UniProtKB/TrEMBL annotation:
Residues 213-250 form the Peripheral subunit-binding (PSBD) domain. The lineage of its organism: Bacteria, Pseudomonadati, Pseudomonadota, Alphaproteobacteria, Rhodobacterales. E2 component of the 2-oxoglutarate dehydrogenase (OGDH) complex which catalyzes the second step in the conversion of 2-oxoglutarate to succinyl-CoA and CO(2). The keyword NAD does not apply. This is Dihydrolipoyllysine-residue succinyltransferase component of 2-oxoglutarate dehydrogenase complex. The keyword Transferase applies. Its EC number is 2.3.1.61. It catalyses: N(6)-[(R)-dihydrolipoyl]-L-lysyl-[protein] + succinyl-CoA = N(6)-[(R)-S(8)-succinyldihydrolipoyl]-L-lysyl-[protein] + CoA. Keywords: Acyltransferase, Lipoyl, Transferase, Tricarboxylic acid cycle. It comes from Pontivivens nitratireducens.
Amino acid sequence: MSTEVRVPALGESVTEATVATWFKKPGDAVEVDEMLCELETDKVTVEVPSPVAGTLGEVVVAEGETVSPDALLATISEGAPSAGAEDVRPREVETTAKAESAQPSGHVDIPVPSLGESVTEATVATWYKKVGDTVAADEMIAELETDKVSVEVPAPQSGTISKIHIAEGETVSAGGILAQMAAEGGAASAAPTAEPAAAATPPSESGSAKDIENAPSANKMMAEKGIDPASVKGSGRDGRIMKEDVMNASSTSAPAPAASAAPRAPVSADDANREERVKMTRLRQTIARRLKDAQNTAAMLTTFNEVDMKAVMDLRNTYKAEFEKKHGVRLGFMSFFTKACVHALKEVPEVNAEIDGTDIVYKNFVHMGVAAGTPTGLVVPVIRDADQMSFAEIEKAIGEKGRKARDGKLSMAEMQGGTFTISNGGVYGSLMSSPILNPPQSGILGMHKIQDRPVVINGEIVIRPMMYLALSYDHRVVDGKGAVTFLVRVKEALEDPQRLLMDL
């Protein structure tokens, strides 16, 4: 039986990749999830694992050739490989096979669940169970943190936790083994003896580390930037250094001299005793890096306006009871702002566009990002095709994403693909701010606190509920005229909501 090996998902807006390296040749034995080859795109390096165990058959695409997503790369003959192929099986695969065969009967490994595209490692944030505890099938036993989302680890079946390989705060690679459990009714003993931390040492730290081949793109970048490979921590399989690792190392190494040249001012022993030093979570590190990247990459400007919220508030008060009774969801302000932004994006499409290399990509749809604060940091779930939704559908979608965000249950897919973002700092009391872009988007609208202020209407001073609006935009794509026009259209739609119904 033959199994096809195809190009995996390459990421949003990536349409092709180049085969950089084949790590196996026809006739070689391969194990499930063993890396076969490596692809390079203009954004990331992608590893291609084997979907089955068997023997590598025909290699359809040679090194240096270009392929599209889902294109056929090679074939694998399933089943026992030939004797010749068995001889060339890598040493670490043999070791793994021996370890698996030596595993006591009744024991079940607890692996790292799928972390999502381009995520190669995670940190164990919390163990909810300890060695010796009994668990039910699908009961949550641990929580992992990646640089994008939190991932829950369920028990694969009922039984007893017998060993924990990765302690809290330690890092584990995608596909790694977190712990071991004795299956319910299994013959193996579930003695409460924790696995020492040394057992989690990856193969890359053993004597065979020098046999591990780094990503070609990583070697090239290290050579160009003069970076010592020993100073770069690899996130690839078995500690292989990937292109992203070099980029992270180069970005963090630049400010290092300044930091060492100007250390923090000495503090008294009394002050030091009252300080608390907490390591940043992977999510917080990613938020910090992405926000700084946005400032460094985009030509970011912010334009301001203010909106009289009386019409929206009156309309909401008039219909909110009927709305909730019919649709089962409360009528909030976010659906009005989403509808107003969708309306304005149709007139000023560059605010809904993005730069890709030397191209500007205009989106003929609106995937609305809604920034949400969580206990672990800011996340931006995406409401897909918001331009096709009713007020009730928008409110339901925002409510669902908000609950998932607070519970740490957002998937990577739910935070990808946004074309424009709304951020509501008003819920925290912010009166005015300048929001930062969410790359690669070209615009973000900042909402703020509604505050009664005196304004002049028809020559008279009246008190109205006013809100400041801020649009931050990428000046490389959006001109000042377009940015101001967009914000004025949002203002007009909110001050006269009937315009949304009339498409004016």
